[in-house]
Amino acid sequence: MKDLHINGCGDSCCLKIQNLSVKIGKDDILKDVSLHIHCGEMVALIGPNGAGKSTLLKAILGQREYEGVVSFSAPGLRHKRAPRIGYVPQSPAFDPGDPVSVLDLFACCMGKRPVFLGAGKKMEEKVLRCLERVHGEELLHKRLGALSGGELQRVLLALALEPLPNILILDEPLSGVDAEGMGLLMDMLDEIRKKYDLSILMTTHDFDMLPRYADQVVLINHGLVCQGSAEAVLSSESFRQVFHRKGGL
Ligand code: ADP
Ligand code: MG
Q: What's the pTM?
C-alpha cells in the first residue's frame, strides 16, 4: 500500500514519514520507520551498508513500493500540489571517453530539441544560470567523463535545483569527493539551503562533517535506531553498537 498525501502538519514540518516499511520479496528491508524533517533543515541519514538508506530515499521519491505514510507540507505549497523534490542519485559513472558535455546533459534534460542538433544560445544561457547556483559556470563545455568527483556532484546538484525544489535529496554526495571538495560541497549545500529555503535530506558515511552541518542525524539499520543532534547520535551507545566503534567521532 502506498499512501502519499499532502497535508498541513504545521509550517515547520516539511516531510513526515509514518510507519514506513518496505519489503523486497520476502525480505523486510525497512520496518516501521517514522521520521519528521522540518522546513529548512539539513538532515543526515546514516547507517551501515545495506541498512536501507537508499531504499528509504527511493520510497520518498515514489520509486519504491512501501507501506505507511509519506506526507509533505511546505509554506506556499498550494493545496493538492505535489511538492517538488530534487534528487541527486548515488555516484553515476560516465565513460571517460564519452563526448557528452555538461551542456548536452542539461539540454537533454531541459530542452525539447534533439541534442545532436546542438544547444541553442538561449539554452546555453539557461544552463549557465543553473550552473551559477553551484559556482560552476566554467564547467559548461566540460565532458562529463572528465569531471572530478566534486565537479560531477556540483553539476548533478545544479540539475536537481532546476526547477527549484521544496526538498533536496542526495544519496551519498560525498563519496568519490576528496577532503577539500567535501568541505566545499557541504558549504555549498548549506548556502543553497539558506538561500532557497530548502530542506535537505542526504545520506553519508562522512561522520566528521555532521556536527558542523547537520541539524538532525538519523541512524537507521533496517529500522530507526536513533535520531537527534549529531553530537547525541555519534556519541550514543546505539551508534557504537551499529558501527562497532569505540569513540563517537
Ligand atoms: P544502503 O543504501 O543503506 O546501503 P540499500 O537501501 O541500497 O542500502 O539496500 C538495503 C537492502 O535492500 C540491501 O540488503 C540490498 O541488497 C537490498 N536491495 C536493495 N535494492 C534491491 C533490489 N532492487 N532487489 C533486491 N534487493 C534489494
Ligand atoms: Mg545506498
A: 0.90
